[in-house]
Amino acid sequence: MGDPLSFDLHEGSLPRSGGAATLTPAEAFSYLRQGAVLVDLREAYETNFRVFDVERVIYVPWSRFAAGLGELPRGEAIVVADAVGIYAREAVRALAAAGYENLAAMAGGMVDWDAAGLPVRKDAEYELGGQCACKMKTRHGGNPLLDKHGDADSKPVGDGGIPMTRVLFLCVHNSARSQMAEAFLRKHGGGRFEVDSAGLEPGKLNTYVVRAMAETGIDISGNGTKSVFDLRAAGKTYEVVVTVCSPEAAERCPIFPGMAEKHHWPFDDPSTFTGSDEDIMRRVRVVRDRIEAAVQEFVAGH
Fold first, then answer.
1. CA–CA separation, 100 and 108 (whole Å)
2. Which of 245, 284, 287, 295 is labelled catalytic?
3. d(Cα 200, Cα 154) in Å, to the nearest integer?
4. Phi–psi pair at 99, nearest 5 degrees
5. Domain range annotation of the chain
6. Measured at the alpha carbon of residue 85, what is the angle toward residues 80 and 88, in degrees to the nearest 5?
7. Active-site annotation holder among 37, 171, 234, 280
8. What is the CATH number of domain 155-300?
9. pLDDT 10s digits, 120-147
10. In Å, what is the CA distance from 116 to each residue of 35, 89, 108, 112?
11. Are 222 and 211 in contact (CB under 8 A)?
12. Active site residue 134
């Protein structure tokens, strides 16, 4: 491995991503035993039952990562992990853009770490179980966040101490419409929403959409695409799910426990647009502006 606290010369079984090392759980554990810092991106409810049993862990939930990344130690070897590997690479890219060095993303997150038999501390009282997703509860019988971590952790809190509403925007590939909706809610939401976007079949970010959003002053060029099924498997919950694709595709969206609202906003799919560069950009701008208007209306109603 070379210097045990440097990822520069790491040659493991997984390919590097954006110049940064990608580690298997076993490789990550080797570095962590030698003094590397683990940054755990999981939300509070995801850490109730299982935590990485390593010496140095810093918890920075993904929902607050952008605001908290500047507080992470510089000059240290940092391994980034989450529940199943959804956000780790994206977090490493954000850290690198912020000037951090010596970074690695752990593949598979807690799920693969636990499956590999690596050290985990568990509290069985807070493991979820039940006959179906709508009746999941802990063995303890209470709300694990309220009982174990205090009321402030039971729901993300925004500006002015107001609880945030969790919102998911969904389309087929998470490459265009849902990405724009997520970005506009972050812009217009006034700190009152925790927002994600995902796709049924994640693809590549649409370059025309990246350009159209840049025209509004919003840079989404570094965004990754995510699977809605991975979010569901990771235990993510949303009070509001908004589908921005066809009704047929929307029917394939999984059910999220705790979902109180489901909306369908049908917008044209930029991936189907043809013609000259300007023709495509003109149509993308129309979709972009309609999505922004829908988001602003949504914010006004919540």
1. 22
2. 245
3. 28
4. 100, 5
5. 21-122, 155-300
6. 35
7. 171
8. 3.40.50.2300
9. 887 655 454 444 434 434 444 444 433 3
10. 21, 20, 10, 6
11. no
12. no
